[in-house]
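Review form for a predicted model. The reviewer records the input and the model, then writes brief findings.
Reviewer: anonymous (R2)
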Amino acid sequence: MGYSVFLKKNEEKRLLGGHSWVYANEVAKIEGKDKNGSLATVYSSDGRFIGKGYINHASKILVRLFIRNDGIDDKKFYLDRIKAANDYRLRLGYNNSYRMVFAEADGLPALIIDRYGDYLVMQCLSLGIDMRKKLICECLVDLFSPKGIFERSDVAVRKKEGLPEVKGILYGEVPDYCEISENGIKMLVDVKNGQKTGYFLDQKENRFAARRYAHGEVLDCFCNSGGFSLNAATVANKVISCDISELALKNVRDNAELNGFNNIETLCGDVFEVLRNFKRDKRQFDTVILDPPAFCKTADEVKDAYRGYKDINLTAMKIVNSGGFLITCSCSHYMSNTLFEKMLQEAAKESGRQVRCVEIKSQAPDHPAALGAEETSYLKFYVLNVI
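Model under review:
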């Protein structure tokens, strides 16, 4: 007999609204017996069926729901759900590089699958999914016949599941760099050592949108492998790509060479310090792009993150030429839209510049947000005109 998890009174409301996570402190009792990571059935306090999901007694998230009927997690289930997720992306016109499966938003909590041309990169972020990655790989091979599947489960969140950080080839062969096409630009993606699964696919449409505003001399901060830089280079006179990682900057230079761009210059340094130095030297830019990593990964870090975001945005506003643009982003869901706008308003006031907002966007459509799970809506992309 498998586990039956009974919730405390009224704790089912969030789950019935579409959320997937059952926290351990929301549970009144557990009946039955099975192994950790097995499929458990969740009920309300009065015995109503809520759904099924993988259980992990070592995690604060006790169960991650993903089956809302009497179904089972067999191979056909995974084939159908992965195919449905991919079909959605194909209908939107994605065909070369995109997020194929986005965890909760695709009804497969803790599972990330990204496509880079003929190769797939997978992240397994929970015990239940990790135990079934062989089955999931079989499904991916049956459905898509990739040349290779690489695992990038080298993320700290796995520790909360009692899992080690791991990465490596799961199927076939995978090169160090996979070439993709994005917005008509060739990109070499470092799937083995790049951030996340190798590239930030969630900014694809936003990088294309940046071309409207990138003109003259552009400063791209936290440039990573150069997504914004290369898009900006298609329309700007000059782009300075700044990052603290020399490996990332090498990737920028390689990508620039791949596309025949000779108007990109790289600068290695801490962005906070670089911005302050440009301000001190009275160096101005026509467009500044800020796409930092998440400054807060927990609610406890929001205050410090707020100060960090305000610091770089305030300084950036001061080094934008009159009439130029500041493109600024946040990828932390803890930094809500309301809080991010409040920070920008304060920065604008203290900068002494007149600033107006001209465009607001979110994550790309291949990263859909589940309305009942605010964690899946995380990316902010603001374009500000500095007068």
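Findings: Residues 295 and 305 are 5 Å apart (CA to CA).
Further findings: The chain has ten helices and 20 strands.
Recommendation: see findings above.
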